[in-house]
Amino acid sequence: MSVEPAGGPLVELRDVNKHFGALHVLRDINLSVARGEVVVVIGPSGSGKSTLCRTINRLETIDSGTIAVDGHPLPAEGKELARLRADVGMVFQAFNLFAHKTVLQNVTLGPVKAKGVKKSEAEKTAMELLDRVGVADQARKLPAQLSGGQQQRVAIARALAMKPKVMLFDEPTSALDPEMINEVLEVMIGLAHDGMTMIVVTHEMGFARRAANRVVFMDAGSIVEEATPEEFFTNAQSDRARDFLSKILTH
Ligand SMILES: Nc1ncnc2c1ncn2[C@@H]1O[C@H](COP(=O)(O)OP(=O)(O)OP(=O)(O)O)[C@@H](O)[C@H]1O
Ligand SMILES: [Mg+2]
Prior knowledge:
Layout: E1 11-20, E2 23-33, E3 38-42, H1 49-56, E4 64-69, E5 72-73, H2 78-87, E6 88-91, H3 103-115, H4 119-132, H5 148-160, E7 166-170, H6 178-193, E8 197-201, H7 205-211, E9 214-219, E10 222-227, H8 229-235, H9 239-249
Parallel strand pairs: 3-8, 3-9, 6-7, 7-8
Antiparallel strand pairs: 1-2, 1-4, 4-5, 9-10
The chain binds adenosine-5'-triphosphate and magnesium ion.
């Protein structure tokens, strides 16, 4: 039993259901993420992990249930939605940087356009963030001039520039060459240690063990099992989780 800190969970999904046509992709999802908690979501391809992330910042609508961020239910649209979306930073597998803008511009664009931050101030913050993720020396380059690992770190800095309350990561290292995976994971572990609330879809067990408070295992649209990383990786309870682990552990 975990005790919720004052202020309640930062992210709370209650009885969330989502269909794509006839396909029931999220089934009665209940998930509470506390402030400062790091939750790793794992599960087979097609189990609904990306869809779950996308509903939390309202890139996808839900059919029933509720999602609240910091106590506020996600509004349908308008200014309120934009504000809540800014509370939820997202980093995808594909870095999705603006190709024709410099690294620095990629990081300042959101704060300047969406939050009305002065350009000089946005640039100062951006340089601090780029320094934090280890790519300050790349600020004047275009994304294509950076390695995949560097681009993904810029994407993290860009998300952080909006001062989100929670960061969602959807397989942030799965498009990277092996030697670049660690540099991105190190940045994420640093964020976790600094107290950022994070929901991370990843099969990187090293990250889960070092940074996660909890592992959530999804299969066929349902949360099948939740446990600490240690419990989950050594003593999964469900057949589906054990079957899944036997596949990823042997590769
Ligand atoms: N826009 C969409 N329209 C129709 N079906 C979709 C759409 N997006 C996802 N799906 C389907 O919903 C299910 C869940 O997809 P989702 O991308 O959330 O899975 P996932 O767990 O992230 O898988 P992966 O590990 O391959 O990334 C899959 O069956 C997928 O084909
Ligand atoms: Mg996915």
